[in-house]
Backbone:
């Protein structure tokens, strides 16, 4: 049986601002505007949830295809990707001690991922462990 395990050590979002300072008093209500509010930036938790719930099966297919070529496939890789303002992955890399074909398959899949629109580009890194049982 093949098992594709996900080990999440850290998920870092780049380009996020510093933590907000504690506020002393409630701010005055903002004037009502007809302009649409900017969408919120994607959060690390939201991106991780999307990857594990929607996109993990595609990564598993890449892994299983590589397992048919080499049953000893194991290792750790880092998925690094950038999401643009429309929620599309515009840069993707799968790096680690893995077969080049496996990395290429995973990168192609990552470029098809879609997330919620964001006010600006955001980059994420997700460590993944491949293993067989």
Residues:
């Amino acid at each position: 049986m093949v098992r594709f395990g996900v080990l999440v050590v850290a998920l870092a979002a780049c380009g996020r601002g510093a933590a907000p300072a504690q506020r002393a008093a409630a701010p005055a209500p903002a004037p009502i505007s007809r302009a649409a509010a900017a969408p919120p930036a994607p959060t690390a938790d939201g991106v991780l949830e999307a990857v594990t719930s929607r996109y993990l099966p595609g990564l598993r297919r890449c892994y299983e295809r590589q397992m048919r070529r080499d049953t000893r496939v194991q290792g750790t890789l880092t998925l690094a990707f950038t999401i643009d303002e429309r929620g599309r992955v515009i840069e993707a890399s799968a790096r680690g001690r893995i077969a080049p074909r496996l990395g290429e398959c995973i990168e192609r899949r990552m470029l098809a991922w879609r997330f919620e629109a964001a006010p600006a580009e955001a980059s994420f890194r997700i460590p993944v462990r491949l293993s067989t049982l």
Summary: The chain is about 30% helix and 25% strand. The chain has a mean pLDDT of 79.
